[in-house]
Design goal:
The chain is an alpha+beta fold and 819 residues long. The chain contains 27 helices and 34 strands. Strands 2-1-26-27 form a 4-stranded parallel sheet, covered by helices on one side. α18 (592-598) packs across α19, α20 crosses α23 and α23 runs antiparallel to α24. It is globular.
Length: 819
């Protein structure tokens, strides 16, 4: 008997697949397409167990779909721009490109060792000039369509990485990459108008039936659509206006003060020349250092200061004091809030703290309320309006629309919609990113780089020291000629947010060698949208939202014929050890290399797929890995010991009961595995079903039909192939085949084979089991009752008693009720 040697087998078949280009994409239009995609990794240097899990999941789906008759696109690439490469360059003194490409070579080899069936001919690398040339083309498309613009404003700034961060990249007030506390600075930056697509991004979530509801909810909350009204307050002393968005226009008559974000541009004008000017400006600088998370936390103390200025109420003409406070953010709403302390808990707390007036304008319906009585807390329930002029007595829900229209009629506001979503800040002050293809000319202004001059190449020799933007210090990069007038000009020295690279990479896989345009529309429309997208839930907002935005822009530009990029989304759980996420600091890291070196890739894949459902966290278990290795050895021995028999392909004869029983188990397993992979994506229960089938084969009697045994063993190898591709390829040859197991048609189950000829039922007396019987499966209730009451053991037990009722449940039980 041959010994299972995973290292020898896996090396052999990986070489064979590579030499024969076994995983090249099938472009046969006669077959239904299936685009299976795992999120591409950042080439940090080593694969971790999270990578192994997501790639194993994707590979099972891809291999199953190929065997099920689909033409499958299953590519891989590298999200290769970003700060880690620059940080490594500072630390190691190496250029980012060298560090990045060395990591890519190493990680690609690791992926091949996992046996993942990628079409490596379609590999994309976002830091390659061939790719970022197309990223620059897409930037220009956004610019031409009015979706890319430049403006000055307060931005999130990471002092460590010396770069701007989008709101989405600030986590708990810190940089999402390095964890440094984020500050705010004034900079002129490039933005994408994602807010123009807010409604579509929100509404189209409803058509994504294949997405987890949790992810859709996260996106809905991030977009944050609110309906209400805009209200315009005049500021007489400046002859200016302040616009407020509110979801509660019904409480407008209860406004007793206004609160502005300290950074609001009007604030400095309001305090200019006043006694408290220096104090207010110092307060502004203090608040700017606080993170948005801290400022808006319900637990954080509410700090504020009176500006000394007043706004005029648009309906009553009353003078409303204008305050600034830490809990109002400039980039949320309009940066101005009308405060109604009687009916908002935050405003109530602020009013109490600073002894500001509180005016009740909603009272419980049917109750007499003393509007002069001091309130112990804000009233936030529904009711009817009081102290609201002609609207008194109106239910507040009705007043929402009525007062909004009243504002519109008077020209001081009206119905409006607001979003939490802000335009996407895409400028980054770093070297290792796609250069923004814009030139600045003193005579011509902003000039896009002509497409024929793309790519704008990153200079090879720059000084990367972590102090400011390396490109801004590169004379050869900065100084250029204006494409419009031919005069001296300057290049934009900011590079693009790397989320732009990953917002369209899934499209490039369909046409990766195209040197003229990002992709051919016919090729993209042939393959997209992605049928199964697999990756971490940590990308639920950033990457997925941006990718959806890109797709809609490209749809509007006539470049694609679909509006959503990912039809189905599978968000896999984390890999834990000792109850915690694997990390070097915790000392609980297990690397894929370790597992492959000791047990082989097939064992690692099988364990990581068997240990938990894909969307749940997985607890690492050394004994579980060993169990998976033992199972593969068991399958190997089963195949090896019957290899000659299976190779002869004897005729199946179902005349004996053991053969029928094994056939029924085999077809039940085919049904279970097919549905678990193809529909439910529950790989753990699919593997469990295969394990039960192997147990059944081991228990198969020596005297039973050999043809059925051979058929069951051969089918087991095919069912196991997507999970353990190397060992099944070897066993397929062992049983006499010359082609690949992965080129076989996926087995189909026979529904008739699942029907039982006989079933075992229990016989109960007054609900207690007293005997078991094997009976024909197709008996009627009456026939079951007759057999049960004539059973000798049952007759003895009911002798002398009155049978009051007999209840028969076909295929399960007969219950005899006696008294």
């Amino acid at each position: 008997m041959r010994t299972y040697n995973p290292h020898e087998i896996e090396k052999k078949w990986q070489q064979y697949w590579n030499e024969t280009n076994a995983h090249r994409t099938n472009e046969d239009d006669a077959k239904e397409k299936f685009y299976c995609l795992e999120q591409f990794p950042y080439p940090s240097g080593r694969l971790h167990m999270g990578h192994m899990r997501v790639y194993s999941i994707g590979d099972v789906v891809a291999r199953y779909k190929r065997m099920s008759g689909y033409r499958v696109l299953h590519p891989m690439g590298w999200d290769a721009f970003g700060m880690p490469a620059e940080n490594a360059a500072i630390k190691l003194g190496a250029q980012p490109a060298k560090w990045t490409y060395e990591n890519i070579d190493f990680m690609r080899n690791q992926q091949k060792q996992l046996g993942v069936s990628y079409d490596w001919e379609r590999e994309v690398t976002t830091c390659s000039p061939e790719y970022y040339k197309m990223t620059q083309q897409l930037f220009l498309l956004f610019y031409e369509r009015g979706l890319a613009y430049r403006k000055k404003g307060l931005v999130n700034w990471c002092p460590h990485d010396q770069t701007v961060l989008a709101n989405e990249q600030v986590e708990d007030g810190c940089c999402w990459r390095c964890g440094t506390e984020v500050t705010k600075i004034d900079l002129e930056q490039w933005y994408f108008k994602i807010t123009d697509y807010a409604d579509r991004l929100l509404e189209d979530l409803d058509q994504l039936d294949g997405w987890p509801e949790k992810v859709k909810t996260m996106q809905r909350n991030w977009i944050g659509r609110s309906t209400g009204a805009e209200v315009t307050f005049e500021v007489p002393e400046l002859n200016e206006k302040l616009t407020v968005f509110t979801t509660r226009p019904d409480t407008l008559y209860g406004v007793t003060f206004m609160v502005l974000a300290p950074e609001h541009p009007i604030v400095r004008k309001l305090v200019k020349g006043k006694e408290n000017e220096a104090e207010v400006l110092a307060f502004i600088e203090k608040i700017k250092k606080e993170s948005d998370i801290t400022r808006t936390s319900t637990d954080a103390p509410k700090e504020g200061m009176f500006t000394g200025a007043y706004a005029r109420h648009p309906l009553t003409g009353e003078d409303i004091p204008i305050w600034i406070a830490n809990y109002v953010l400039l980039d949320y709403g309009t940066g101005a809030v009308m405060a109604v302390p009687a009916h908002d808990t935050r405003d109530f707390a602020f009013a109490k703290q600073y002894n500001l007036p509180i005016r009740r304008v909603i009272a419980p319906e049917g109750e007499e309320v003393d509007t002069n009585e001091e309130m112990a807390e804000a009233y936030t329930e529904d009711g009817v309006l009081v102290q609201s002029d002609s609207f008194d007595g109106m239910p507040n829900r009705k007043a929402l629309a009525v007062i909004s229209e009243h504002l519109k009629e008077k020209g001081v506001g009206g119905p409006a919609v607001s979003y939490r979503l802000r335009d996407w800040l895409v400028s980054r002050q770093r070297y290792w990113g796609a250069p923004i293809p814009i030139i600045y000319c003193d005579d011509c202004g902003i000039v896009p780089v002509p497409k024929e001059d793309l790519p704008v190449m990153l200079p090879d020799h720059v000084v990367i020291d972590g102090m400011s933007n390396p490109l801004a210090k590169s004379e050869e990069f900065v100084h250029t000629t204006c494409p419009s007038c031919g005069g001296p000009a300057r290049r934009e020295t900011d590079t693009m947010d790397t989320f732009i690279d990953s917002s369209w990479y899934y499209l490039r896989y369909t046409d990766p060698k195209n040197d003229d345009i990002p992709f051919d529309s016919k090729k993209v429309n042939k393959w997209l949208p992605v049928d199964e997208y697999i990756g971490g839930i940590e990308h639920a907002i950033l990457h997925l939202l941006y990718s959806r935005f890109f797709t809609k822009v490209l749809y509007d530009a006539g470049m694609v014929n679909f509006t959503e990029p990912f039809k189905s989304l599978l968000t896999q759980g984390m890999v834990l050890k000792d109850g915690a996420k694997m990390s070097k600091s915790k000392g609980n890291v297990v690397s894929p290399d370790e597992i492959i070196a000791k047990y082989g890739a097939d064992t690692g894949r099988l364990f990581i797929l068997f240990a938990a459902p894909p969307d749940r966290d997985l607890e690492w278990s050394d004994s579980g890995v060993e169990g998976s290795y033992r199972f593969l050895n068991r399958v190997w021995r089963m195949v090896d010991s019957h290899a000659e028999l299976v190779a002869r392909h004897p005729q199946v004869n179902l005349s004996d009961s053991a053969a029928k029983d094994l056939n029924r188990t085999l077809h039940a397993t085919i049904k279970k595995v097919s549905e678990d992979i193809g529909e439910r994506r529950q790989f753990n229960t699919a593997i469990s079903a295969i394990m039960e089938l192997v147990n059944k084969i081991y228990a198969y009697p020596e005297t039973a039909d050999r043809g059925m045994l051979a058929h069951a063993i051969e089918t087991t190898v095919v069912l196991l192939a997507p999970f353990a591709p190397h060992i099944t390829e070897e066993m397929w040859r062992m049983i006499g085949h010359e082609d690949s197991v992965h080129q076989q048609s996926w087995p189909k189950y026979d529904a008739a084979a699942l029907v039982l000829d006989e079933v075992e039922i229990v016989v109960q007396i007054n609900g207690k089991v007293r005997d078991k019987m094997v009976i024909p499966a197709n008996l009627t209730k009456q026939e079951m009752e007759t057999l049960a009451t004539e059973n000798e053991k049952i007759k003895e037990l009911v002798e002398g008693k009155t049978v009051r009722k007999v209840i028969a449940v076909p295929g399960k039980l007969v219950n005899i009720v006696v008294g």
